[in-house]
Design brief:
two-stranded antiparallel sheet; about 5% strand
């Protein structure tokens, strides 16, 4: 980090018993992101930070996006826009790494509850059609986007 730079980290507890129904930290796949990649830091140290694997992280983002996607409240519009940009970046990363969205790694939220979120995402954002097609299994893509 650059001396006084501050990175806000929000720690939320997951699991089926929790209200937010986030993935359980003890079982969710992780990806280790380097501080160089995350923060653009070019220093000598390259610390890695464990994050929820992007193939699962997209599922947590789409839940919130779906709840505010068509809201007209300014705060909700900002949240939806930020979530959209995050999801588009995650989809690009998955596509670049030839990976797919992993519904099975998020048992706290069944695929049947998440597919309608992807349908709305597909309907509202033409720019992500190809990304969804290459990052979803063919059967899931057909169910959600056709």
């Amino acid at each position: 980090m650059h001396g006084d730079d501050v990175v806000k980290v929000e720690i939320l507890r997951g699991g089926k018993a929790r209200q937010t129904k986030l993935p359980n930290a003890n079982s969710v796949p992780l990806h280790y992101a380097s501080t160089r990649n995350l923060l653009g830091y070019d220093g000598d140290t390259n610390t890695t930070i464990p994050i929820v694997h992007p193939s699962v992280l997209i599922l947590t983002k789409i839940k919130r996006w779906y709840s505010v996607a068509e809201s007209t409240r300014p705060q909700s519009i900002r949240k939806a826009r930020g979530d959209f940009e995050d999801m588009r970046a995650i989809l690009h990363w998955l596509a670049k790494n030839n990976l797919r969205i992993d519904f099975t790694a998020y048992p706290e939220k069944p695929k049947e509850e998440l597919l309608p979120c992807f349908r709305k995402f597909y309907e509202l954002h033409v720019i992500v059609h190809f990304l969804l097609e290459v990052t979803m299994d063919a059967q899931d893509f057909a169910l959600a986007c056709n």
